[in-house]
């Protein structure tokens, strides 16, 4: 299949890796050095680059929210991902909360604060800015004073935005992703990312410092998560905005069962990296089937065992990216795969250039083996200011 991949980060490197293993002819609109040998960089406008391909696969959320799938569909080019209307499940938290409540999905109680509306907290809330915020527009507050400060900070950042205030929930988190064709949902293995910057889940939220799959979760809880995704797909179809692409439910496993925290309308980054290394079949027919409204089956085939992805970042991440020579990387083996994210080749030299530089995935028969292999790989990375969490996958 001739496939154009949009996006040049770690998630897209993992998609390119798994598609290239099955012999597809890949073209890239952007590419970091990790993509070398997997396909051809065509660059330019995705609409031009999409001429003559069988499928366009869109990694990041911004082009989805901007309607790239709609534009391609109007030209008769199948594209994997939701329409702009369906992508609102990620791009607007206020829309999503109303959708979840309308369809009776388990989620945190919430209220919306209009721009400028007077508000004084009487207890702790989670404060969320509406709109895409790259994982940064969320404040989980410990008490009323912190909530008032967070509201002030959110309003200073975006005076015209609505704010969503949510009840604070407690529990472990799990990312459950499903491939959708507008009517059906086929789940991927449950995964977990580690969003906080520092060990012990401390520090600021980031795009993700690492991810593991599969996560130990009870069958009953997993069934609830799958049911929420299925009902979400049914709800979107009933509202005239059918969901195609990958629907990612972020769930909190509370004492009273799983509750939906958020949707993403794309593969998680870094969840995509361990998931793609565990996939045991060709992904392309699934992506094309999703785009055309007909998934080719009911279940995906997975390798036995587990995968653990440790993200190597710049020291100053999430505030600052790296700018250093990337002097050494581990070599890929059957149970270690290196995905590149914030890297570039400058005058022949490989450099660490972004916030999240690498995703090192270890595979193993069990979680501990996968984790040990990932960290053995991380130990071989050399660039000035390399940083990582040491507890990715420490408790699954
Ligand atoms: P979101 O972007 O909405 O998923 O929020 C980012 C992170 O903030 C989540 O992964 C949770 O760790 C945390 N969070 C969001 N909403 C809540 C909530 N209602 N209660 C507790 N933590 C939350
Ligand atoms: N890993 C979370 C995300 O992709 O937003």
Q: How would you briefly describe this protein structure?
A:
This protein is an alpha+beta fold and 396 residues long. The chain has helices at residues 10-20, 46-49, 61-65, 68-74, 84-91, 93-102, 144-157, 219-238, 272-278, 284-292, 367-378; strands at residues 2-6, 25-28, 40-41, 55-58, 79-80, 110-113, 126-129, 138-140, 163-166, 172-181, 185-187, 192-193, 196-198, 202-205, 210-213, 244-254, 257-264, 306-314, 324-325, 336-340, 343-346, 349-352, 356-364, 386-387.
Descriptive report:
This protein is α+β, with helices and mostly antiparallel strands and 396 residues long. The protein is 27% helix and 28% strand. Strands 12, 15, 18, 20, 23 and 24 form a 6-stranded antiparallel β-sheet that branches. Strands 3-2-1-4-5 form a 5-stranded parallel β-sheet. The protein is globular, with a radius of gyration of 20 Å. The two termini are 37 Å apart. It binds adenosine monophosphate and glycine.
Write out key terms for the chains shown.
single chain; 396 residues; Rossmann fold; Dna Ligase, domain 1; D-amino Acid Aminotransferase, Chain A, domain 1; six-stranded antiparallel beta sheet; 11 helices; 24 strands; 27% helix; globular; binds adenosine monophosphate; binds glycine
